[in-house]
Structure formats: structure tokens, C-alpha cells
Amino acid sequence: QHYYITNNLRMAESSSSQEKPAEQSKFDQDNIPKPSKMLLLRAERDILINDMIREKAKEEVKYCFNHFAEMSKCQQEHGIVSGLWKCTEENKGFKMCMQWAFYDEELRDSCKNEYVQRKREAVQKNKEQELENQIRLKVIDDWMTNQNK
Q1: Tens digit of pLDDT for each residue in 110-143?
Q2: Between helices 105-148 and 49-59, what is the axis angle to 10°?
Q3: How far apart (Å, rounded) are the C-alpha atoms in residues 38 and 114?
Q4: Which of 59, 30, 54, 15 is nearest to 117 (CA)?
Q5: How many other β-carbons are positioned within 10 Å of the β-carbon of residue 100?
Q6: CA 4 to CA 125: how far, in whole Å?
Q7: What SS3 class is residue 134?
Q8: 63 closest CA partner among 53, 72, 73
Q9: Scanning 8, 71, 81, 141, which has its CA 20 to 30 A from the CA of 124?
């Protein structure tokens, strides 16, 4: 396999020269890499996206919000320290739900898509900032040239 960079996103390129069907293309209709075909850095895949999964699973009702709310309520009633052993059932339920959430492909894909979108926006913002800086430097350089005449 060969790797190449597109907008700071690594993509894998198959070494076969066969033309692939459109549905298996690495790019969408706007020639932007599809998130499912992107190779993310290990830190992005194992840390950043997993953190997003953990946060989404806690916050969204369709995932683990109810388990998190029950565990939090129990720990508030019994205190954090004594709640560790008095709230074992709630804690177990929450942990089981979180484990399930990490294997939910829909949640993982949505977090990966969100991460890639944020990364693209950051790259675009950096490019715009770089262009603005180049324009400022050009204006300053022109001004300095005019001052020396």
C-alpha cells in the first residue's frame, strides 16, 4: 500500500491498478476523503475518538445517559467515597453500557466523522490565517519599500 496526504489527512492507496466501483471510492462527490477510508494517527484513533465516544455515550439518552444519571444520583445520596461500594449495581450497569457503546459501530462512525470534520475545519482555518499573514507581510514589505525611496 502507498500512503499520501490530502489536507493533512492520511489516505491509503491500494497498489492494485483495477478501477473500483463508485460506492467503494475513497472520495465523496466533492472529492473529499471519506472518513471510513481515512487512516488516522494511533493517538487520534485510540485516544481522541475514544474520548469523544465516552462523552457522547454519557450525554445522549439513547446510549448511557440513564445509567450515568442513576450512578450520579446514588453517589450524591451516599457520598463519593461510600458510594463506591454502596452503588455497585449502578456502577456496574454504567460500566457495561460504556463497554457496549465502544463497540457500537454507529456511535464510533459518528464520532470519527465529527472528529474528521473538526480537523478539516481547523486545517481550513489555519490556511486562511496563513493567507492573511502573507497578505499582511506583503503590505508591510510594500510599505517599507516605499519608505526607503
Answers
A1: 898 888 888 888 888 888 888 888 888 888 888 8
A2: 120
A3: 13
A4: 30
A5: 13
A6: 22
A7: helix
A8: 53
A9: 141
Of 94, 47, 28, nearest to 66 by C-alpha is: 94
Arithmetic mean of pLDDT over the chain: 76
pTM for this entry? 0.54
Q: How far is residue 71's CA from residue 78's CA, in Å, rounded to a whole number?
A: 11
Cα separation, 133 vs 16, whole angstroms: 42
Q: How far is CA 90 from CA 77, 85, 149, in A?
A: 13, 10, 78
State the residue for C-alpha cell 472528529: 115
Question: For the stretch 128-143, what's the b/e string if a residue is b when 16 or more beta carbons lie within 10 angstroms of its beta carbon?
Answer: eeeeeeeeeeeeeeee
Best CA proximity match to 60, nearest among 113, 119, 111 = 111
The residue ranges of DSSP E strands in the chain, in sequence order, are 2-6, 9-13, 38-39
